[in-house]
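Researcher: I'm comparing several assemblies side by side, and this is the next one on my list. It has 1271 residues spread over three chains. Same procedure as the others: predict the full complex and return the structure.
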Amino acid sequence: MTSSPLDRITSHQAVMFITNFIFGAGILTLPRTTTEKIKTPDSWIAIIVSGVIITLVAIIILKLCQRYPNETFYQFNQKLLGKWVGSLLSLTVICYYIALSAYEVRTMAETTRLFLLQGTPTWAIMMPFLWIGLYLVQGGVNAIARLLEIIFPITVLFLLMVMFLGIELFEVDNLRPVLGSGVKPVLKGLTTSSLSFAGFEILLFIYMFMKEKTKVTKVPLLGVGIPFIFYTITVVIVVGTMSVDAVVTQTWPVLTFIRSFEIKGLLFERFDSLILVIWIMQIFSTYVIALFIATLGLNQIFSKNSSAFIYSLMPLIYLVSMIPKNINEVFKMSDVIGNFALYLFFIMPMFLFVISKVKERKYEKM
Amino acid sequence: MRWRRLNKNRMKIEESAKNAKQDKQPFQESINEMTGNLTEDLNLIRQEIGHNSDVKFREFQMGTTGIRIAIIFIDGLADTDVINNHILVDLMWASPKDTGHPLKNSSLKEFIKNQALSVCGLSEARALKDITSGIMFGSIAILVDGLEDVFLAGVSNAKTRNIDEPPTEALVHGPRVGFIENLKDNTALLRRHGKDQNLSIISSQVGERSKKELVIIYMKDIVDPHLLEEVKQRINKIKIDDVHDSSYIEQLIEDNFLSPFPQVQSTERPDRVMGALMEGRVAILLDGSPFALIVPVTFHMLLQSPEDYYERWMAATLIRILRYFSAFIALFVPSLYIAFISFHPGLIPTKLIFSIAATREGVPFPPLIEALIMEVSIEVLREAGLRLPKPIGQSIGIVGGLVIGEAAVQAGIVSPIMVIVVAVTAISSFTLPQYNVGIALRILRFASMLFASMFGLYGVVLFFLLVCSHLVRLKSFGIPYLSPAVSFRLSDWKDFMIRVPLFLMKRRPKLLHPKDSVRKR
Amino acid sequence: MKKCKPILRNSFVSILLLFLLPGCWSSKSIEDLNIAVGTAVDKSKDGKIRSTLQYVIPNAIGNSNNKLPQQKPYINVSATGNSLEPIGWETTLRREGFISGAHEKAVIIGQNLAREEPIREITDLFFRDIDIRGSTLVFISKGAAARTLESKEPEVIPAIRLVEIAEQELTTKALRHISLMKIWGKSNSQTSFLLQLIDIKKGEIELDGAAVIKGRTNKMIGILNKEEIEGINWITGEGKSGAVKAYQKESDKPTYYQIQSMKSKIKPHVIGGRISFDVKIESEGRVAEYWNPHFKPAFKDKTIKQIENATEKEVRRLVVNTTQKMQKELGVDVGGFGNQLRIKYPNVWKSVKGNWDEKFSELPISYDVSITIKDYGMIGSKKN
């Protein structure tokens, strides 16, 4: 990996990193996973609430990073926790990211196989995907940032277009009554909806590369805010169109929604192809970022800049992604990873932040 | 292992060659200089280049002094006007003032240089190599009996083309001027087009055997000094026998030779060069080639045409957007067609599927083979059309398209939809204003068809990601290839996909880090 | 990575290229497909299910060069089995090509079958199948469903024509078209709903009322005729256009009010544990036909008021009639009353939703109709 410390990304690109990383495999199943827990049409409220909480956590992470402006998480956590504990933590994080990439690629392969290419074996779908990601990561953080800047507007455009084309099927009644059963169900759904925001933590790793290090509160704000807006819109429209009872039974509710309308006469009558296209690109960006962070970690822990790391991660990711045997196991894997992420990146940054403040006071006293 | 051994051997051979060269040199130097004796010097030169039939020798005496003078020139290359009306006349009629002392050495030189010869381009040389190369370049060598220095006068005045509109870059609106082969004419054209005192033209030479003159052109107060340094360094690194055309230089200084995308832009139009220089780019002109090179290149430059600036902003913006759209079509339509037809019939409107299925009835080949047959035929036709003489070339285009396509459909080899797809693609690729972009897209189109035939729509997406990943890593002289689209700077977008009215274009694009960023308007 | 060892790189690339050899796995050329546009499901004589798939023959449509004259643009292939999936595979024994369900437009279920099996199960394949879309329309047919897929007119594909007719929604006598998407939620939550009913008249299909599907059993229990459908449309406010009788006495010759827009609001009231409903119906339109022998000029406001009143009376008659049928005869709520109760009084809804259909039959519903005539076309009076 050739990302030298001199590679710089702009704040705008940093926002792209966060947004694209959060937008991942979760969005296709999001309406179902949240509504399953909540059982009322109020899942969109749960999303708004968890969005706000996650933004706050992201800002705390930003403050933490600002204390160590030229180091990534892998480097400064050793300072805070000591060499061995820090390295152990970093290794855990690296394993998490490897598992995350594997999960993303596998989900993509599953849905592609389901909707686009029924006869193609899974490995054939995954291999080119993995290799193109490898090619991109070799270009360093700048190349990745630029690709994200290309992918993001395409995603936004298509997503909004498709959502609003289907709006004629929307029935407000499906969303009412708002908070009809009280606030308790919403709270039950908070954990699931927060899972869909997993990925806000990468500021820990890319902060070092940013050009402007001060006055960048807008980066986590926008970075979490943009996916949050899209998630809300998606859930509102999908649940509104399909009603709670239908949503909980569908494996991929967003896709079912898109296939339930046809606009006669417009170029493609059917728009699920568009959604799948952007979705593949989004998963690609999530996978590439996860791969990059894992490689960055390996490079920094072993203080070498070897490309052998990336090449060796490839087969590892492939093997991990082939572990789940059917789609239920894939969903289970996502739950495991998601919960792990929650504990790891929710609690740990705050913990580190507190430690760093304590250390600061210690030094001041001395 | 074997590779390593081969490498070692190669290094050994290179070293011995270097030593051999060094051994040769001292021996040669001894006979490299002019002696001053006219007969000896003439013999030296005759030995070097006298065997050429177009090298002419003319001996005469200088005016009243009787000093022998000989001129050597290449017939056809040297300017006979200068010879007849100036050199011969001046020297034959030269009458130095009688001071009593015979003219010798320095005073002789002084007299000839300052008083006799009425020629402007005058230089002196002593080494045989310089003299012979000067003669070969078209200068006239003047050997004076008693002087060790030899004068080289004038520049070549070989026959050249008239200045005309370049055939490959014809525009509807704009100056009908294009570069020609002669370097001096080209730089003159440029100076006329851009009457700016900051226009700097630095010359250098390339080619080990036949040294051709090359100039680097830039705006002294705008260009980024790092860029200039980089260009100079890369040109200095060129070690090749002979540079036939500026495209050799393009291939030797580009960043990534494996990329299908051009990283250096070549153009025949001085207005394009001037536009680029004003933005802070650097241009390179080679003697003997009408194509100027512009570096660095970014993606959007390949889809621009100077016409965009000559039309009003609304037309220019819409036509630009049309061009981007055509580029997209030229690249993706055949692959999308293959993807939808072979893999995802559910994604096309119902009525369309009926028409396509009906037309494909009876076609023996699967869509990929069909598409390949048509695409390859179009490529063959295109290449053939380039070689044929003009009048036949036009008709082959029409004949090829209509008749062969129609016949193929009637015979049931291809479906009419395929013909339409391929025709639309071909026409879209002609809207691109530059030839090398067209080639890049043609290559990529085949790759995308391959991806589509293996993985359908997923393959097209993969291909798109692959091309984007490649473009995103590509740099042209340190500038990322995809600026200003990516590395989002809103101000640079004023000239990217749209073109805002001229009065709004106040600053030069930041992506080139110009020194002076305000256009003086 | 420019300095990568050439051998490693070359072997990498060659291995990559090896993968191109197997070629395309999932590609199915379009001309090998049997494009199914409609499915008719019937009960067959031996208690099994008979399903008929309607395939399109693309050659016989449009202006293609290979068009064979006098050929029907479709072909129906049927087989029997105990559910839809094995039947599908049976048909591949008889006909070349893959079945492509991606353009499935209509599913028609025979009345006999609908009364016996839950709708949800008959349509399970259509929901589960990856290719078939949620926008496919569902119908019930009065007679044998397979007959609805036949047509004597040339160049007509029955399934497509059926869908086009259903999507017109030009008159209040027809129900809004129902797609798979719409009934999925209702089937799962045990709500009663309606499906369009088709009849064959003179060999061609016609929309003729609706079939009532009871929530609890998810089976067909009855029929609403065209007039009752009018009532339903007025109650739900989903009519788009159509006409209403606007005269009282037979001696006043026909007068018709043309609907341009209609709105309906169902308001539930829960007072002391007792539920009741108020329905407010509003509509705007114009006078379309006015045959009155004692022609009173429309320019006069009084005449307009009379026509409005007559229309209101008629609308009220329609809705009350339908409500009667819903509550007394069929015992189901297909007008969306339960939904409104759920929204306004979610707690009350929780306690009654278990046996809503039965409860609904006892509840009082009152109607308030208001019609506004905006204009009367080109003729305002008759010169005597």
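Model: For your comparison table: Chain C touches chain A at residues 1, 16, 19, 22, 25-26, 130, 133-135, 179-181, 184-186, 188-189, 339, 342-344, 346 (CB under 8 Å).
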